[in-house]
Amino acid sequence: MIIASWQAVLTFALVLFLLLPVGRLPVGYRLAVLLGAVLVALVPLSTGLTLAGLLRGLTDDLAISSLVWLSAAAAVKLGYLPALPISARWPLWLCFAVLGLLLYPAALGLGMVDTYRWGYSPRGLIIAVGALTLLLVLLRNVLGMLMLVLATLAFLLDIKPSDNYWDYLLDPFIVIYCLVAPLVALARRPRGTQPA
Fold it and tell me: Is the domain of 191 the same as that of 165?
């Protein structure tokens, strides 16, 4: 059996836990469900891969920022953290949507500048992310600050197989989420009110 990376196991377990309707269970049972999700991630398939390894083969590893956000969402579902107010989500959605729009169209060949290459010698990119982090600190957005700081720290410690800083900051899933979530939030708000 091929054991998947810790990131794949964590991703699979967090996503499965967040999709399960366990909100009415006592906290101890919710924690048991999360631990059970980790065990399910390690279930071997006939191919020799685990379920987490299969997911990793389909999606690759998530960015560290995505793992931090998923972990925070799991902590909220477990009752260890309060839910993030909508006013604190807007800066996160905007931050990661803008970063995604800066990276992905250029990486797909649209435009003259290859922004993905900036991630291999990321001094300027790290400075820009540092400025974004400072802005999130000023906005008292702890989750956003942690997402950027931990992604940068993980890059400096080289904990992923990638040598590109972008792979620690972004993945397509966080960008798609940050592009769609504001539209959903706007559609759900009562008519005649302004976004928080």
Answer: yes
Q: Do residues 80 and 141 share a domain?
A: yes
pLDDT at position 61 is 87
Domains in the chain: how many in total? 2
Measured in degrees and rounded to the nearest 5, phi and psi for residue 43 equal -65, 125
Q: Which domain holds residue 20?
A: 1-61
Average pLDDT per 10 consecutive residues for the chain, totaling 196 residues = 71 94 91 95 86 83 94 95 92 94 82 86 94 96 96 94 93 95 87 54
Q: Give yes or no: residues 26 and 67 share one domain.
A: no
Identify the domain boundary among 21, 38, 61. 61
What per-residue confidence (pLDDT) applies to 4?
A: 52
Within 10 angstroms of residue 98's Cβ, the number of other Cβ atoms is 13
Does 20 share its domain with 6?
Answer: yes
